[in-house]
Amino acid sequence: METLFQLVVFVFQGARVVVSRSFADFTPQATFDIKKCDLHRLEEGPPVKAELTREQGLQYYRTMQTVRRMELKADQLYKQKIIRGFCHLYDGQEACAAGIEAAINPSDHLITAYRAHGYTYTRGVSVKEILAELTGRRGGVAKGKGGSMHMYAPHFYGGNGIVGAQGQLFESYNMAALWKLPCIFICENNKYGMGTSVERAAASTDYYKRGDFIPGLRVDGMDVLCVREAAQFAADHCRAGKGPIIMELQTYRYHGHSMSDPGVSYRTREEIQEVRSKSDPISMLKERMLSHNMASVEEFKEIDIEIRKQVEDATQFATSDPEPPLEELCNHIFSNNPLLEVRGTNPWSKLKSVS
User: Fold this and answer.
1) Tens digit of each residue's pLDDT (9 = 90 or more) over 235-293
2) Which one of 100, 202, 281, 307 has the lowest number of neighbouring Cβ atoms within 10 Å?
3) Which pLDDT score, from 0 to 100, does residue 249 have?
4) What are the pLDDT digits (tens) for 14-36?
5) How many other CB atoms are found less than 10 A from the CB of residue 189?
6) How far apart are CA 192 and CA 199, in angstroms?
7) CB atoms within 10 A of CB 115
8) pLDDT band at 326 (very low <50, low <70, confident <90, very high)
């Protein structure tokens, strides 16, 4: 529950002036125009206006900004060689995870690909557990044994490698349509497949039409409200028994494909900067709220400071927590089996597995 007053502090020539401002001064709710979705096999699509309450706006901002700061910290830890191995960062695409999560229920099931940190957070895993997993520590969400691509939570089945999975994708489309499964297939189209632009890789970049007989939407994936409304439309479609639907979210990643990719050999720095300046999902939401008097600059600054501290505290834990001991290497292969022996790298190496 919010307190009644916010303190705004101004400093004029050494004099400290404290001004109290009531939260009642802010606009509690506003309606915004959002981009119309492109449709495939649908007579009508999501609305072109979205309502936003002050509380929702602040929550979406906090979620996206937390993911952004967490990913920037992961970048730093990787460059310090504290995080090793594969690491795919999500900064730039935050509106996708935040918008989808705002439209579905915690009990709905979700699985993502290898760029999994954002969804791991929106599914309820703390920044501390995510960063500790990236650094391979015992307190990580997968006890330090999963790393960047293998994090899990209730109703969230983690990241997974999708290399060579195109055939499986179309088989899944077919079965979902045959059985009218309540399934939303989401393509986060960040414009590049590793280092290849979509225009160079695909004769048709209309990914929302790839299901052929399955309805599809192409959505502005940089606008959290647009994603939320489209995801709500898709969820309602599925819950009404109409079968599967495809969503293509047009988004953009600021980092390279992974930390081993500088991200500027196949695109220019100017291109990245243009997206940052014109379409950044966090800045877009912040500007909307400020322009409609739904929050103050000082309030956003306070949230930013709080998030930075949260990420720094999580970093401290992720770099000081012990690594899992060798005897725990093979634990949790099964959920409820008695103690069993697992063969190591040679026939004489025996390890124990405890469920």
Assistant:
1) 999 999 999 999 999 999 999 999 999 999 999 999 999 999 999 999 999 999 999 99
2) 202
3) 98
4) 444 444 456 679 999 999 999 99
5) 20
6) 9
7) 24
8) confident
- Sequence letter at residue 236: D
- The CA radius of gyration of the chain, in Å to the nearest whole number, is 22
